[in-house]
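Hey, resending since the last one bounced:
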Amino acid sequence: MPIPPILETILECIEPSSSFTGALPRVTSSSGATYFVKLGRPSEKEQYEGESESLRLFDRSSPGIAPKLFVNGIDESTERPYMISEYIDVKSSSLSSHGGAEYLAKKLATEVHSLSSENGKFGFSIPTYCGVTRIENGWYDTWEEAYGKMIGGLLDGIEREGRDPRGELVKMGKEVITRAIPHLLGPRLKCTPSFLHGDLWSGNVAISTRTSKPFIYDPSSYFGHNEADLSIARIFEGFPRAFYETYHQYRTKSEPVEEYEQRADLYELFHYLNHMLVFGVSLKGEAQ
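The C-alpha cells again:
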C-alpha cells in the first residue's frame, strides 16, 4: 500500500527536507535510508505498544541486536497504531554460518540478559503478545509467581477456547502451577530479573546483509529468568549446540544446576501451551 499521509509527515520529522518512496512496509528516503513502516488496525494498539517498548529496551541493552525503533504512536484521525523502525536487509544464511550462533549467544548473555528491571521485579509494565496471544504481564516480587501467572493465563485461554474438551490438560497444568513451579522456581532457584525476548526461535532471527551478523525481531518481552529465553529454540531447533555452549560460557547455569534440564522442560511448556491455544490440538501430546 502507498505511504499514508500521517506516516509521511512523521517520516519528514525523522528526516527533514527528504522525500520518500516505496510501499509499506519498506520505505526509502531520498538520502538513501530505508525504514520499516508498520500501520496496524485500531484493535492492535496494545500489540504495537508492547513491541515498541521491547525494541526500545533492546536498543538500550544491546544496540544493533534488534531493529532500532525511531517512533511509534496512534494516528488520532483513524486510531490506527504505527511503528517506524530501521529496515534491515537479510540474506539467506543460518546461525551456524560465520560464527553467528556464538555472536548471538554472547550478545544475549552479556548484554540483553544483563539488563534488569528498574524496580527489581519480574514481569513487564504493559501487555505483550507471543504471536497472537496476549500476555497480560504486570509486576511480581518472585519469578515463581510471575511464571505461574503466565502459565495460568494460557490454561485459562485453552479452557475458554474449548481446546481441551475433557479438561485433562488443564487439570495437569494447574498441578504444574501448584506443585512443579514452586518446587523448581521457588526460593531455591538463584535468579534475578533479566530482560528477555520471550519468543526466541529461529523464525525470529535473521542475518543482516550489511553486517553478516544475526539480529532478532518480533519480541514478546518481559523480565524473567534468563534460562526461559532459551526454551522455544529447543522445540523448533535452528539453534546449533554452539549457541548454548557459548551462552553458558558467559552466563553459567543457575543454581541448582542439577535441575537445569527440568527447568528447561518447564519453560518449554509455555510455548507448547501457547501453540495449542493458537492452533488447537496439534501440540497437545507435547504439552501433556
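The CA atoms of residues 105 and 194 lie 15 Å apart.

Sorry for the duplicate.
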